[in-house]
Structure formats: structure tokens, C-alpha cells
Amino acid sequence: MFRRDLPGAERHSGGVYIRMDRRGRVAPGRDGSFLESVATWPDGVQPLGFWHDLPVAVLVEAEEQDWPSARQWLGELGESHFMLLSTALQVVTWQRDHRFCGRCASPTRRIAGEFAMHCDRCGQRSYPRISPCIITLVAHGEDLLLARSPRFPPGRYSTLAGFIEPGEAAEDAVRREVYEEVGLSVGRVAYFRSQSWPFPHSLMLGFFAEAASRRIRIDGVEIADAAWFTPRRLPQLPPAYSISRALIEAHLQGVRTG
Ligand SMILES: [Zn+2]
């Protein structure tokens, strides 16, 4: 299990660590996962928390490596490894992108004991950026509305998703995104659950939405195609570890049990 309590590098050196390169490729460890045991952490590690009571850290190596991608690892490992790797990827991205103050452009320094970068010149602090997104399964009775982005592998369809805008409630973002992407008005919107998604720092808030009609108009920019599918005839779906797939499976389970 992963515990979010930041180990101090001076009091804890060693335990387990994750090695990744600058493109987010992650080295295989010794137990079939990406974790490597060490007596002493190498220089430059970022502590993350505790993994089964052992201090855990991440190290970014300068050279590009031929390791599996983070997405490959996420597809193979269980939920607690997912949380740990997701945290590591986001902490690394944040440190890389907040080396200078966004207010006065001076170099920042890392505060020990918390995820914070401090600017000594103007006092501004930067914390890891988390971007809330809605992701929604639109249904009409038993049928599901699924769409494909131009970036998807051929044949794959998924749920609709989009960033929440400043000042916007999540439920309003669901209604706006669905209308923008497929021209549909939705009735009832119900919260499902959330998932941290480290590409690069999204917090996906999952919702079910009921379509008021079946008539759709595809925007052609954010999505390349969208269609209604019956539970008995589905396209290629997103990977099992994604909240998109969990929304689809929860809907199908509801259809089966009536
Ligand atoms: Zn500053």
C-alpha cells in the first residue's frame, strides 16, 4: 500500500525507488514491478511517501532508455501500484515545469517535507498542478454514446471528456462538453467516482448523463466520430484500468441486472 507521508531525505535514505527517464519510460525492478530496493538512495531522488512502510522515491535519469512506457506499466499492475506510479509521474512533471517562479521569473527551490517550490525573491509558492476534467458516459436507455478522438488507435471508442473551465461547476462542464462535442442536451447527471490520470496531471471526475434525445451532431475537431452502441454490439473499448472503461462496465452491469 502507498501512504502519503513524505519521508525526509536526511532521515530516510534507501528503501525502494522508481527509475524513469525524461520521457516517462519506467525501469523494470526486481519483483516484476517497477520498484527497485536500495540500501542508500542515489543523489537526486525525489521522496514520494511510503510503500508498505518502506520509504519510496523516484529518480529521473538523464539518458533516454528503452524501458516500458508508463502506460504499459499501468495496464499491467494493480490499483495501489497505479496510485504510486501516477504520483511519481506527476511529481516529476511538476518539478521539471516549476523551476522558475511564474510571477517574477526567479529560480525556485524545493521546500523539504512537502510538495512545494518556493520563490525567495517574491515569496510565491507553487504546488503540483492538478487539472480537473469531467469524463462522462452518456446513455439513452440501455444504449451508450461513445466517441473516438483523432488520437485513438484505429477502431477504439470511449466516453466523452473535457477540462473544467475557471468558475465552472463539474456538472455544468458535463452539460457543456456533451453539447459542444456531440450537440446533445443531457437530463440527469450523476457522479460516479474519480481517478487521477498522470498524462500529464488530470483529475478525472466520472459522471453518468442521460441523453434527452438520440440525435447527435459531431464537432469534427475534438472528436472524429461518435455513435450510439447497444450493449450487445460494442466497439473496441478503452483499457481496463481507465475510469472511462469503469463507467462503461458499470453501465453494462446495470443493464444486466435491470
Ligand atoms: Zn517570484
TrEMBL record:
Residue ranges occupied by any Nudix hydrolase domain in the UniProt entry: 128-251
Catalytic reaction list: a 5'-end NAD(+)-phospho-ribonucleoside in mRNA + H2O = a 5'-end phospho-adenosine-phospho-ribonucleoside in mRNA + beta-nicotinamide D-ribonucleotide + 2 H(+)
EC number from the UniProt entry: 3.6.1.22
Domain of life: Bacteria
One Pfam family recorded for the sequence: NUDIX
PROSITE patterns on file: NUDIX (PS51462), NUDIX_BOX (PS00893)
Alphabetical list of CDD domains matching this protein: NUDIX_NADH_pyrophosphatase_Nudt13
Family matches, as InterPro entries: NAD-cap_RNA_hydrolase_NudC (IPR050241), NudC-like_C (IPR049734), NUDIX_hydrolase-like_dom_sf (IPR015797), NUDIX_hydrolase_CS (IPR020084), NUDIX_hydrolase_dom (IPR000086), Znr_NADH_PPase (IPR015376)
Cofactor: Zn(2+); Mg(2+)
Residues in the signal sequence: none
Family to which the UniProt record says this protein belongs: Belongs to the Nudix hydrolase family. NudC subfamily.
Designated name of the protein: NAD(+) diphosphatase
Source organism: Modicisalibacter zincidurans
Organism taxonomic ancestry: Bacteria, Pseudomonadati, Pseudomonadota, Gammaproteobacteria, Oceanospirillales
